[in-house]
Amino acid sequence: MFALCLAMVEPEERDAFTDFFDRYHKLVLFKALEITQNRETAEDVAQEMFLYAAKNFEKFKTGTEREIRHYLMICTQSRAMDALRKNQAAPEPADEDAAARAAVDDTERIVLRRDTLTRLLRYIDELDERYRAPLKLWMDGVPYSEIAQMLNITKDNAYKRTQRAYALLRERMVREDEA
Question: What angle do CA 100, 104, 105 make, to 5 degrees?
């Protein structure tokens, strides 16, 4: 994969692209794996992402570290979701009743997922600022060391606040699901 990407970059930019690839490859692969839950699919997503980055390397060279990470995470998430949709395309059911049941099941799953996501995003916005800020930054792919710098706290504190935010969100989701 890397050799193909490198071939797409101008010769004078190959060192910069190599550094770019080394710096972000694990992050992109981790994000893709987190979404797809399949190593092979995640590697395909990462390959697609870096081919895009190689073709459009000018866009990536001009951004700040935070902007590049954010853009990579959004693009990776989008491509991973597309891959999931492609892989989950079910074969056509044999009869019309089975097709209708499958459509209803898919619709229910989508509605439940969207409802859960909407609730979760609302809960994140309702968190105390000291937990919300590091969590949102971490969700954007910003490492704890940079979160610490941005929020003027220690790296350990950035980690603890992010973990506490997750715990608060889990507690609230469970509490409301039981109600």
Answer: 115
Q: Measured between alpha carbons, how far is 17 from 24 in angstroms, rounded to an integer?
A: 10
The pTM of the whole model exceeds 0.85: no
Percentage helix, strand, coil for the chain under 3-state DSSP, each rounded to 5: 85, 0, 15
- What's the pLDDT tens digit per position in 97-140? 665 555 555 555 555 566 677 788 888 889 999 999 998 888 88
83 contact partners, CB below 8 Å, separation of at least 6:
32, 36, 41, 44, 45
**Which residue, 123, 115, 118, 125, is CA-closest to 168?**
123
Q: How far apart are alpha carbons 93 and 169 in whole angstroms?
A: 39
38 vs 46: CA distance, rounded Å = 12
Whole-angstrom distance, CA of residue 75 vs CA of residue 67: 12
